[in-house]
């Protein structure tokens, strides 16, 4: 081989090595980014991964994968291991015939990415046998450390995430991955998790990355509120502290309680003066709804949940009874955090036979407008199973609830004494009444009355698609109710309000504006219909009251109508102020542009379109035109809710458009604020819009390949130009 050919061969080998090294470097860089992000995520999961016994997750995962029954249920579907959690005595009672008792059985769950939902098993750790298997196609579970690599790899490869957060491995997470949903996206039905990060620019806001785990893509990226630190000391480190226990003949009551992995404290085996009252009571999930997204979280409380116990279980003597109260807090630096949660689960028992279920929310959630919805499940066993009658107040009389029933509104339907339900078995009678605590009079709840069936929440409860009240709604099949074994699901709706007085809102300071609600069951005499005099003395029944015999509507994705009669109320209740500054309303420098001068610039946005036409179309079709500048950089499609066309009435839309036309803050224009633009910035049709992006991994790789090819071609050219050397 002559020297020229040796040089060409050496050049070819060198360029090949450079090219291979480029591929390896890019892959290593991406994998390192994901690995660092996973490590940070797992560190946050370590803050919540607790149990009274130690579980070897790898061994339990292997046991699940070795089970032919589970694998047959999955078939050829893509699936992933979610978690394995130990069961307490109350939760395991469903499998006591298979030897399950206190903390010797484990619930294992896998997610079916192809079909959706989970496949589950109960493993008896004493003998290594799987004693039960079932599928739950409605389950949309919480996050776990085992799904982190998949979620973070999807996020890290997304150009929009790279544009906003840069290297995701270098950005600090704000929360552990949370099970979440979007009402106007596939994330309403698909399983999606929210990866949340602190804004790298230091604004204090939270960046949200919604990852659709079933479609392997990022569904939405947006920012939520920021706030300066409060002059409040951080609480003492009391994480993971809780105490299981029992009360025996305390004020006439026998009851036990245990912390569960995801369903809060499970109170079980409650009896008063030796008479059974309820078998179990627990909170399966807490939905946080934000109209500004629109969507929210499916929070869980428990020792393996997104919001774990904080501080020991508090048992208080009330003088005529006792109270059991447990606090759950997402992070120890509360209240100086944004987008974190602080809940309390409460039960009270009294010497006259009364008992009450309570819930407290302290905030501060991700945005000002929100609705917190705890899902209490109460398995009644009044005087034993099999013959509990259930009646409900229906406008002006008590009516027997013959079949499974969903009630909404619930609180508006009350007897002259204020009771909404009556349950009794023989001589044991109880009336049920939800307390009114909201200073705005916005108290309300949904109540589901179901016949007890094995597998319908008596074991671990897995959350369902957001904003559907699933579970329990999917179990309502018109089964006979009264005279059987009723299970009561109570879902109070705690609606936040940012005005005077504050209610369930994160300002001015978390803790002093908490909201709470109670459902009280009190002993009563024989059920009798009210007299005409008692009915005449009652307030006029609300027009929204639903007769008991009205069929329960099927679950519907129809968006919730916006409440409000004035423009400002409509704007706030629509969530507009959670993304925009709208004159004196809302909070600026968040997701959307400042609209305080929109009345001056709207007409110049689209040639030939009036300001009124532009505003109306932008509200009803928010993706049709995209303004170029938002507080966090270029505006991105799919941020603004796309369901106002069905949520706003024509009259409400007219009021909002008329109000926006009055917003002519010339000072904002002079300062070059959003919408000023000198001249006003032109909007861009969404279909043609692509925000500026930093070089992605693929782009960098292409540049490196082109450089290597250029060097190769240039060197070849020079070689052929050189004199030949045959030696």
Short structural summary:
With 727 residues, the chain is of the alpha+beta class. The chain has 4 domains: 1-44 and 143-224, no CATH class; 57-136, Nuclear Transport Factor 2, Chain: A; 245-462 and 479-529, Copper amine oxidase, catalytic domain (Beta-galactosidase, Chain A, domain 5, Distorted Sandwich), CATH 2.70.98.20; 567-688, Cytochrome Bc1 Complex, Chain D, domain 2 (Orthogonal Bundle).
Describe the structure.
The chain is of the alpha+beta class. The chain folds into 4 domains: 1-44 and 143-224, no CATH class; 57-136, Nuclear Transport Factor 2, Chain: A, CATH 3.10.450; 245-462 and 479-529, Beta-galactosidase, Chain A, domain 5; 567-688, Orthogonal Bundle (Cytochrome Bc1 Complex, Chain D, domain 2). Helix content is 20%, strand content 28%. The chain is built from 13 helices and 33 strands. A hairpin with a 2-residue loop joins β11 (265-272) and β12. α1 packs across α4, α1 (3-46) packs antiparallel against α13 (697-721) and α9 (611-620) packs across α11 (650-661). The radius of gyration is 30 Å and the shape is globular.
Key structural traits:
727 residues; alpha+beta; Beta-galactosidase, Chain A, domain 5; 14-stranded antiparallel sheet; nine-stranded antiparallel sheet; 13 helices; 20% helix
